[in-house]
């Protein structure tokens, strides 16, 4: 085990601010950065030579779904081996609390469409955090309160407007989550039951944040109504205090080219006084639960009702009528299923193998797997991704789906941060290395008010990563995604070495953080 006090020498420093690389020695002691000085200024009996490497603050994943990571039997190393030391979780409206007595079984049934099975022993955030804190964290976690989970606790999967009683319950649960140490409110407005919520409901919840909180949102529509959805998000964020657009994209060929207008709208909000930013992941395919392909009118019911409808002749006829015109079935690939059947196959391929239509293949897979299916969807273009990536207010989020499901998950779970450093910084030259690091460190730390992280400076936590700028890269792809990256040589968490020569050393040395004042 590497000592907790040592002098780091020989590296080029990317300090997180975006300033040019420079040579500096960094002294870490008792879990914090004690000094940053020109080479040769400091001395210490214990040293680590990082010659040839870039030393940066530990990366911050601005958009993670690893809420369940502390509860897994095996440590989740998908992020720490990328150099990520802190993750913002609870995104897209999915948090693991609250869970009400009235709808106690509804939350697990819904979240199992995305998360592996979890034994729920809590009802509120204080109880959830006690459980996850006791289990331990591989990385630091910054949790958000999920609007979808709030809604399930208050009114199940009901496809209707929240009444005053339900809204009061949601506001109280959000207040409890914030008091327990959450960083803000998230929403996922393409998912049930959140998709049935109007703007007024979300603005009412945003009021709980007191005008100085953050609203992070998976927009209501990332395709045909992208720009209107951004406008809605900004109206809600204005009440909350700050707006964060999750995984900004323009989905579907008819919408390619809208990213410039989307960025202009977000910039206008900043100009008018509402802080607003966005994250992206460096891939042109998305990934989420397969049920998101279904029409909205199918989604306002519980799991058993939906399964029965998908399996009935009448339900199939309705589904064909609504989805029969789609022509992107070969762009929808099964990532994970409960039984691990069909993983890696597209819906078009499944239909061909079974002699059915793609709409029927969709329904059959969902029924057979009892809705526990995730997909990868190829729907974006590279030019839009690159434009979003180069905006000054863009940070990096993996959007990796919850760990522990197996299968063939999107490769972003393993390779997001090295891919930005390798493909888009070193190879494509879209970003300068110090600025790429800023987007992974200081920018998300400031946006989410993550204390003591994001910049290499005395007094901050000694969460650090050293990587080879000439060799860092992602190696996983859609066929073989579960491959750890290359070039991330050393990672320390609160001064303790946790990754050495790219290998995780074991243990859980992260913790749940609470927001800075």
How would you describe this structure to a colleague?
Helix 8 (303-311) packs across helix 9. The chain contains 15 helices and 23 strands. The protein has 517 residues and is α/β, with parallel strands linked by helices. It has helices spanning 106-111, 125-135, 147-155, 164-180, 199-207, 226-240, 259-271, 303-311, 313-323, 347-354, 358-368, 382-390, 412-427, 433-440, 442-448, and strands spanning 6-9, 12-13, 22-23, 25-29, 32-37, 47-49, 54-57, 59-61, 84-89, 140-143, 145-146, 185-188, 213-218, 241-245, 276-280, 285-289, 332-337, 373-378, 394-396, 464-467, 488-493, 496-500, 503-504. 31% of the residues lie in helices and 19% in strands. The longest helix is centred in the N-terminal third of the chain and has 17 residues, at 164-180.
Brief characterization of the structure:
By secondary structure, the chain is of the alpha/beta class. It has helices at residues 106-111, 125-135, 147-155, 164-180, 199-207, 226-240, 259-271, 303-311, 313-323, 347-354, 358-368, 382-390, 412-427, 433-440, 442-448, and strands spanning 6-9, 12-13, 22-23, 25-29, 32-37, 47-49, 54-57, 59-61, 84-89, 140-143, 145-146, 185-188, 213-218, 241-245, 276-280, 285-289, 332-337, 373-378, 394-396, 464-467, 488-493, 496-500, 503-504.
